[in-house]
Amino acid sequence: MEEFCARWHSQFLSILRIMTGLLFLEHGTGKYLGFPHLPSVPPPLSMGGVGGMLELVGGALITLGLFTRPVAFLLSGEMAVAYFYAHAPRAFFPVLNMGEDAVLFCFVFLYIFFAGPGPWSLDAMMKRK
Amino acid sequence: MNFAAIGATWRPHVLSILRIVAGLLVLQYGLAKLVGWPAVKMFENLPWLSLFGIAGMFELVGGVLLVLGLFTQPVAFILSGEMAAAYFIEHFPRGFFPVLNHGDLAVALCFLFLYLACAGGGPWSLDAVMRKKG
Q1: Can you give the pLDDT at residue A89?
Q2: Is residue A85 part of a domain?
Q3: What's the average model confidence in pLDDT over A63-79?
Q4: Range of the domain at A84
Q5: Do B3 and A113 touch (CB under 8 A)?
Q6: Has residue A18 been placed in a domain?
Q7: A62: in domain
Q8: Among the partner residues A13, A69, A108, nearest to B108 by beta-carbon distance
Q9: Structural domain boundaries of chain B?
Q10: Three-state SS string across chain B, please?
């Protein structure tokens, strides 16, 4: 078990990064490309619209693993803003203010900023070349 | 700025912080389902031996252990499975995309716990304290 983990844990980091990026990307494409079709879409120059732009571009870059560290840093900050601006005023506990996603993404991106993208990423491919 | 150098120094500690935050989020669900605090409408008078009640037990015990960093790897592995089950039982039937079926959190936690099952709890954990002593 220990050997398996030592061998594979950076690959699992890449999987975590790709899944988080896809979840993020999907919110951005929903807001800007109409896919998946969302029941309501915020206007482009609102808080939610600017957030959608970051989700679209940032989500794509995180999924590909391109410029991972600076992008993850930016998105971590965005999620902190989203939490305190949109969710915290509603209630203290994330389970009541619906801010769990924002909290979790904030800390996952913070970790990715420190840990890097892992081996399955464009960053790692470019470094090998 | 040399991101890689900063990352190498602080990475294990940030892993511990991430584990604690994820543990608190899960613990909160366990408390809401079984203890009724924080009070969530959907979980009012939830029987302990229902699907949600049993999920709550996983979340209560697993959340406490994750926050403390005790038995992190097996606990994270079990919770990863629980989150996968939660996603496919509760969210997936409502729609294919997590943004529509509201399963984002379950997916994100599932893969995060899978990572923790491999990476462990980092230096700020009871596991690490016991390893130092043992």
Answers
A1: 93
A2: yes
A3: 96
A4: 11-116
A5: yes
A6: yes
A7: yes
A8: A108
A9: 11-133
A10: CCHHHHHHHHHHHHHHHHHHHHHHHHHHHHHHHHCCCCCCHHHCCCCCCCHHHHHHHHHHHHHHHHHHCCCHHHHHHHHHHHHHHHHHHHHHHHCCCHHHHCCHHHHHHHHHHHHHHHHCCCCCCHHHHHHHHC
Q: State the Cα–Cα distance between residues B55 and B94, nearest whole angstrom.
A: 19
pTM of the model: 0.94
More confident residue, B85 or A128: B85
Tokens of A6: 């030592």
Tell me: pLDDT of B1 over 70.
Answer: no
- Here the tokens at position B1 are 């700025």
Task: State the complex-level ipTM.
Answer: 0.94
Query: Contact B38/A104, CB-based, under 8 Å?
Result: no
Q: Helix, strand, or coil here: A118?
A: coil
pLDDT above 70 coverage of chain A, percent:
100
Domain membership flag for residue A127: no
By the CB < 8 Å criterion, does A74 face chain B?
Answer: no
